[in-house]
Specification:
103 residues
């Protein structure tokens, strides 16, 4: 899923932005990392990655490395500020990445 030198996280964030969404959520379920793009409270699945695979491992590494710090991203030709929050989801760690367009 890596595109044009982007990391997996940027690729998924760009996919979310293309669909009009402003957040990503990543949760573990049944051996997979489920990735959802959200606009407000409405979410749609955009990726289903085997948890032991290299893409899921890279995604978790990128999300963990962000911590709660802001990160600048260039998505679809626009500047965005991303912030990640980890939370407990049924005994596992889930992540929510909020995307805010910077004009």
């Amino acid at each position: 899923m890596e595109h044009n030198g982007e990391g997996i996280l940027e690729g998924l964030a760009a996919q979310a932005v293309r669909t009009g969404c402003d957040a990503l959520q990543v949760e573990y379920k049944d051996g997979y990392e489920e990735v959802f793009a959200f606009r407000g409270a409405l979410g749609v699945g955009i990726a289903h990655l085997p948890s032991s695979g290299p893409e899921a491992e890279a995604l978790r590494r990128e999300l963990c490395a962000m911590g709660r710090r802001k990160r600048a991203m260039m998505l679809e030709g626009q500047k965005y500020e991303a912030r990640c929050h980890a939370f407990d989801s049924f005994g596992g760690t889930a992540y929510r990445l909020e995307l805010r367009r910077k004009d």
